[in-house]
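anyone else get weird line breaks when pasting these?? whatever heres mine. first is seq + tokens for prot A
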Amino acid sequence: MTDKPLADRIALVTGASRGIGAATATALAAAGAHVILTARTAGALEEVEEAIFAAGGSATIAPMDLTENESVSRLGTAIAERWPMLDILVLNAASLGTLSAIPAIDFKEFAKVLTLNVTAQAAILAAFDPLLKRAQSARVIGVSSSVGRTPRAYWGMYGASKAAFENLVLSYGEEVRHISGIRTAIVDPGATRTKMRARAFPGEDPATVKPPEAVAERIAALAASGFETGHFERVD
């Protein structure tokens, strides 16, 4: 017997090498899940993995670039060979891009942002759809931003990608809600102490915004709950 709400669950967290992703992976592991960590930087992933082990949790790292051709499908195949299902998928990896007026957008950069923030997310959902469907009550949680729903000057590139991302995740949820136990939700972290936030607001005192752990605790609690597809919440 265990009092850990996510005991025996398998979770995958993207962008897990730092910030909200690393904190979420740690929180899920503390709740009993075995967490698969993916991001581009192997060294940073190893540090998160070691911290999880030190706290008595379990994790596996999978360093990879989500935008590389076939990398996501290879990861899906590798995980399917080791585990029979995937209970929790946290889609956290994203790129901010350069904040600029719409007429000044660098469209090569825009294409890269859309590739990670939208196209790669669709590839992840496609690759893990079979494993998610095998779980009794899989949870897919997309980490978004307020600019995906409320347009803001100079944030058009990132905001457009997040609007598309939210639609993608929630559309997937509608497709599978009557044929599986999969439920999808969107979490807006609000102002959080991350490197992305520091880039976007370079003059801000980081001590004035909440740490990633506050968002991670809410995501872990949501993953263990019985929310319905379409659930949205902002962590203030």
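and prot B, same format (seq, then tokens)
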Amino acid sequence: MHDEEAAPGRVTLADVAKEAGVSMPTVSKVLNGRPDVSRSTRARVERLLEANGYRRRPRTTAGPPLIELVFHELDSTWAIELIRGVESVARENQATVVLTRSGTRHRPAPDWLEGVLRRRPLGVVLVFSTLPADVRSRLRSAAIPFVVIDPAGDPDPDVPSVGSANWAGGLAATRHLTQLRHERIAIITGPEDMLCSLARLDGYRSALAMAGLETDPRLIRFGDFQVRGGFEHAMDLLDGPDRPTAVFAGSDLQALGVLEAARLKGLRVPRDLSVVGYDDVQLAQWSSPPLTTVHQPLRHMAQEAARMLFRPDDPGTGAQRIELATHLVTRQSTAEPGGG
């Protein structure tokens, strides 16, 4: 059984198999996303299917349509915002959401791929920084639409994705601090192998240049977006007389770690140290003091990603990449040096 049909006047699957030099069962395996086909054979069969106008037939199920939302971690506070965004769109379309935790930030685990090919959801929303070519190929072969939400990366151009303006966010956070007359501004961004971390760092550097300030490599740290990482880097940065007067943290969680480090060092926020976070999760407004941060529209990103799954399958007109704006939210964790 397979889920493809030829357009009128086109060749049959038997013709495709003959032209590809493979058997009909091999063509069926490709159509159903089976793993036991070599990469070169899969690519050859898929090219012929596409060239001959085979259309994917939607799979029918007994229950409501299913959207699968896949994370590599579920213990981050921003995951809740993404879940709420996907769930709201699913509810509008009488669909059900299932959550899956799998893999690393770069790709889901192989066992997830085998499972989703069996479950055959209406579509998949993946929260990963990248999506490898073999995963994309097998999802497409099985007629499973997918969209990547990438607050942490920059997928290839042919991957439907939703992201946000990380460079602009880094610029806004740092300009806020330079406009408050801070000159020694540290940054604790995310992992060095994630493009969002580098984009926010570039925005930081640009803001310093606009203010006529030199970039001090000693004030640049690569963190992990978690509380402990922010705390440990801040303890080191704040140790000594030549400490920064402000810290831009690449996530609200890291900013909370900075606040705790400042407390242990006997520094008052914002009088002795200004702190800016990133994401604007709900926890940011309840920190002590409430956190100035860059609002990343996480729920809106998730809604846009889910909506892409319900749009007609028309790659000629459908948006492949949506990038949403960020903006600064000013609260009580920033002030001029010695102010507050």
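btw re prot B: The mean pLDDT is 85. The first strand starts at residue 4 and ends at 5.
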